[in-house]
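Annex B. Sample input.
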Amino acid sequence: MSVEGSIWNGECWASNGRKVNWSKSPFQVHYRKFNINGCQYGSECSSESQTYWWNEENYLELTSEQQSSYESVTQKYLSYDYCSLKGKEFKECQKENVK
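Annex B, continued. Sample output.
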């Protein structure tokens, strides 16, 4: 199973333009031996070229077991999903932008 995610700073929208006081954040994240392959959205690197391992057929969709695991984890641990905010439309959340 692979995980796709982003690390971002939501000051421009999540806090109504106010600076985020990271000392008050509800969690801490520490990375050890972290390695990632990726590219900037919209760049040539993110094309559907088979040159990149993430475009191989076995990464195009989850197996039924992986889908079940994903749903279980999101149900137990997902505390905030800005794509589900009522009255807000974010380009990256639109279904046509998701494979």
